[in-house]
Structure formats: structure tokens, C-alpha cells
Amino acid sequence: MTASPDLTTFRLASPDLLRSVFRRHAAGVAVITARGAHGPVGFTATSLTSVSADPPMLSFGVSTGGSSWSAIAATDHVGVHILGEHQQELAATFARSGADRFGPATAWREGPHGVPLLDGVLAWVVARIVTRVPAGDHRVVLAEVALGDPAGQGRPLLYHQGRFTALRD
């Protein structure tokens, strides 16, 4: 039997409430990359969503206060990379403010449309940005998939309870 929600312990809406609720939501981990005016940029995202199969479209959220926003705001194409459970350090690097995200520890190459493509991921796509929708302190980016490769080996990296984790059998 399922218990009804406890209406005596609810909290009013706040950034902390939203973060607390979504810590309970397991999400896949992706890295979004783009060519910036001063070199490649990228960030870790758990907001990646499939939007449409025909045409193939996806979405992700990006903070307008983040270091990658100016490049995402100005570019036409992004790289979207699905990380494997073996890539926790890569996910942490792209999530850390001030990190050298494309330094010697990051294996990558320039792909179509100048998009930085990360090596060793489970899957990647290059997508053309269709629109950027204002959403509070973020923008929701809708992008149409142009090309990609789903052939990477391994199991996906997840984010749950504020940390990177893996699937359990």
C-alpha cells in the first residue's frame, strides 16, 4: 500500500526545496560543449531531455550566470555527450567552477561546425540550436540533432543525492 503525501510537513517553494526534491531524482549525466570566442567551453548537465523524434530534437538547461553561457548564447551548434560510469572525474571537471575543462586531462578533438567533441563517451551528437527559452536564472535550449554516434561502450553515469553514481544490478 502506498502512503499519501504528508501534508503536515510540506515546505513552501524555494530554491532549496527544488534542489532537495531533485536530489531524489536520478538523472543521466551529459557534458554540453561549444566553440567560444576564446576557445572551447563546456559544462556538466543533468537536464538533458529528448524532445522530439521527428525531427530529432533535444533540450537542456544552462545557467545564464555560468561561464559557458556567453558561448551558448552566441553559437549555432553544440556538442552533447552522454557520459559513462567510468567518467566521474570528467563530469566533476566540467561541473567545477574555474576548472581547466579542456586541459591536458581532457581528451577531445574539434568536430563538425567547430564543436569540441569529447573522447571515450557512450554517445555524442552535434546539434543545431533552434531557440533559447528564458526560464528564471537559466535558459532552456532546444536543439535539432544534426549527426552523432551512439556506439560507445559501457554503462551510463548517473547523478543522485548530490553525487555521481552508477547503475546497480
From TrEMBL:
The keyword DNA-binding does not apply. One of its GO terms (biological process) is pyrimidine nucleobase catabolic process. The keyword Lyase does not apply. Residues 22-166 form the Flavin reductase like domain. Keywords: Oxidoreductase. GO terms for molecular function: FMN binding; riboflavin reductase (NADPH) activity. Coiled coil: none annotated. It comes from the Bacteria. This is Flavin-dependent reductase.
